[in-house]
Design brief:
alpha+beta, 5 strands, 30% helix, binds tetrahydrodeoxyuridine, cytidine deaminase activity, zinc
Length: 135
């Protein structure tokens, strides 16, 4: 797995935190931010966007990925992802997001969770969705 250098990781955390500040989360009051890193060093942010029809809510991870795809970025351009959730607990990405992440991040891509503590959790993409569906 290619771990992300500390300075870049801190820039991703700042971008994810900033995105979380834009979250539309009037139902859960739980703002989430994500920061997708490209191999060229670009950071693509995303936040959760909720809906009164709860199932239509889009998580931060998927917002970041869909935004990257909309910019023309491809799976081979993407290096890793960081999610930021507020508080002192480190959370992990939901199942729906794991499936979408597996579509656009390689099995060896590093996925980080961050919160308001300094520590992060690191997984390899394949650990988050082992034996994923593939043709
Ligand atoms: N949420 C995310 O954005 N990412 C996740 O991986 C888990 C949950 C959002 C969805 C909803 O807006 C709020 O967090 C509470 O579940």
């Amino acid at each position: 797995m290619n771990e992300i250098p500390h300075d870049t990781l801190m820039a991703m955390k700042a971008a994810a935190k900033q995105a979380a500040a834009n979250a539309y989360c009037i139902y859960s009051d739980f703002p989430v931010g994500a920061a997708l890193l490209t191999k060229a060093g670009q950071i693509v942010p995303g936040c959760n966007v909720e809906n009164i029809s709860f199932g239509l809510t889009n998580c931060a991870e998927r917002t970041a990925i869909f935004s990257a795809v909309s910019q023309g970025l491809k799976k081979e351009d993407l290096a890793g992802l960081l999610i930021y959730m507020p508080g002192n607990k480190l959370y992990s990405p939901c199942g729906a997001c794991r499936q979408v992440m597996a579509e656009f991040l390689s099995e060896s891509a590093p996925i980080y969770a961050a919160c308001d503590k300094e520590e992060t959790t690191l997984w390899q993409m394949s650990e988050l969705l082992p034996a994923s569906f593939n043709f």
